[in-house]
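Is S-adenosylmethionine placement plausible here? Inputs below.
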Amino acid sequence: SATLYVVATPIGNLADLTERARQVLSAVNLIACEDTRHTQRLLQHLGLRKPMLSVHDHNERDRIQQVMDHLDQGRDIALVSDAGTPLISDPGYPLVQALRQAGHKVVPIPGASAMITALSAAGLPTDRFTFEGFLPHKSSGRKERLRAIVQDTCTLVFYEAKHRILNTLEDMSDVLGDQREAVVARELTKTFESFYRGTLMEIHAQLSSHDDHQKGEFVVMVTGNPAPAPASEIDTERLFKLLLAELP
Ligand code: SAM
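Reply from A.M.:
I modeled the complex. Tokens:
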């Protein structure tokens, strides 16, 4: 049977499309994409005309059978998202999982991802990091998620949209501590690429200083907890509670 290629596309600068991605996109019979209009622009840039099939979060499960049928009929397919690597805060996981389970061939074509691009130039520790993707949209849910990782000692990486960036930085200051060091990367690989560094409080102030700093796409990277509560302290507290419960 045929192959599903999972193809990374640029996150802004079209020159970042790899040679192999170009070859695969021009060779496949069909392109499964998130948004056909968006992918149409990329294909136009490459001088390609290809049939497209939209696969997004809301129809992904219905599309799986269709994709399998195409593969069984010997048609190679490329899966792309609007930007960067598919499945990374983007559609594709149910499809790839189902194809793997059914024994189909799935081949990755690597390229840009905003998370790795941001980490590679931020100047924060990269030996261990936690990718959290998008936090919940509502402040209560966001804080709850942040509380769950407040002790984490590795670098924390988040994606955020422009209309939530300031609120998210505020919640991060509240929960992770306003003196936590962080780096925010904005508009990576694009004309207005910028890096903001400092404590969460300082970065919030920098971004608040002018509307222009709140435009575009953001990756927020926060240093891990420099002094997590030692396990022994937590255990003592737990033990104390257990003993207390036993007392008459
Ligand atoms: N699949 C993509 C990847 O591999 O990075 C991510 C898709 S996700 C729907 C979009 C989010 O990624 C944006 O809201 C932003 O947080 C981040 N992002 C994508 N492109 C970016 C860029 N050029 N600069 C900064 N962040 C970017």
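Short version: Residues 11-12, 81, 83-85, 88-90, 113-115, 159-161, 185, 187-190, 217-219 surround S-adenosylmethionine (CB under 6 Å).
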